[in-house]
């Protein structure tokens, strides 16, 4: 774990010792020097995060030290707290204008000193994170997926190895993790890459049209069928058919899908003969299919046929610094789309992103950044530009809060926060979440799509 380094610049040896001892008692590593020149020599070697400096020093004074620090390359990433005698408030104010984080008056209040040092170190850590995000490349990109965390590198490796096979694949993971991107990557890594990739959301097609959608129909097969229509399996012939939210497929259609998977043959609605196709099926779900099998809502034989290989897509909260990579990428992407200069991220906005748990994963992050970039009216993207649920992530309203004790949230915000808690508790399973909340799944989808 990185240990922050504080440098105390004070020619009063006794006071310097007291300051370093007080900071050491709170776990902050500090050392002392007596002159600005000695401080600049140590700064040249790097590794200093914060200066706590008297403004009156022998030789160059504290103000000259502050100006020299801010003039250095990367000097804005080092904090500065000024110490001044009570009668020199004007000088302290001047130090703040020159870029000091805070000033303390003698005799020192050591409790105030500790709090000030902790705040300054925290702020500089955020500034460093922002600088790293802005200096970093867009990140490792694999068929549209961005990440260099251990979890994502392992996912990329699995996709490369499974992609080359002809086997069916079941992709699982929470909503918004990017399961369709994984399916497209599997297609791109396969020998079928030059042929069609056809995607369908099983929950988005009315049940009475699913069979015709998958297998097509002949003219006159049912009322309104005025001409022959090819189905998704014919469109995907030679390529890959991606079935998203496979757990929503009606049981009656599951049997027909199993027949195609096992024999490569199907009969269009109203047709007299079967057709033969060569299709690789990749399915995805955020539901618990084992539970659906146990409850009779999903065929066991189809489940095992689809699960020749299973790929689990990690949620955003398990991807470490990928949050920063994705944030930088989305900020640039949406700024370019709007024809604007790419805004910098204020440390407060970065902190808000890191406090939030993103139950909607990468999709929710992308939507939040698109909103923020759209609302941003300056060269700085601030926490105020983010959706309210991200702004409130660190200040939840508790039952014993009094009016005025914090920003009170609206009923809609409270409802959204509770839905997020339920979604996290059930691992993103919308059916179970809807049951717990006592609402229909379509209502749940609509509420999750709101900004809170």
Description:
The protein is of the alpha/beta class and 452 residues long. It has 19 helices and 16 strands. α5 packs across α14 and α18 (430-437) crosses α19. The radius of gyration is 30 Å and the shape is elongated. 36% of the residues are buried.
Cα end-to-end separation: 36 Å
- SS class: alpha/beta
Count of runs of 4 or more consecutive helical residues: 19
CA gyration radius, whole angstroms = 30 Å
Strand content: 5-15%
Shape: elongated
Find the count of extended strands (DSSP E, 2+ residues): 16
Low-pLDDT residue spans: 394-407
Overall mean pLDDT: 84
Q: Order of strands across the widest beta sheet?
A: 2-1-3-4-5
Question: Percent helix among the residues?
Answer: 40-55%
Largest sheet, if any? 5 strands, parallel
In short:
The longest helix has 26 residues, at 110-135.
Top keywords for this entry?
alpha/beta; 5-stranded parallel beta sheet; 14% strand; 19 helices; 452 residues
Topology diagram in text:
Layout: E1 5-9, H1 13-25, E2 29-33, H2 36-44, E3 50-54, H3 62-71, E4 79-85, H4 89-97, E5 102-106, H5 110-135, E6 141-142, E7 145-146, H6 150-163, E8 169-172, H7 179-188, E9 197-201, H8 207-215, H9 232-235, E10 240-244, H10 251-263, E11 265-266, E12 275-276, E13 280-285, H11 289-294, H12 300-306, E14 309-312, H13 322-337, E15 344-345, H14 347-355, H15 361-375, E16 380-381, H16 388-391, H17 411-425, H18 430-437, H19 441-448
Parallel strand pairs: 1-2, 1-3, 3-4, 4-5, 8-13, 8-14, 9-10, 10-13, 15-16
Antiparallel strand pairs: 6-7, 11-12
Helix pairs in contact: 2-3, 5-14, 6-7, 13-15, 18-19
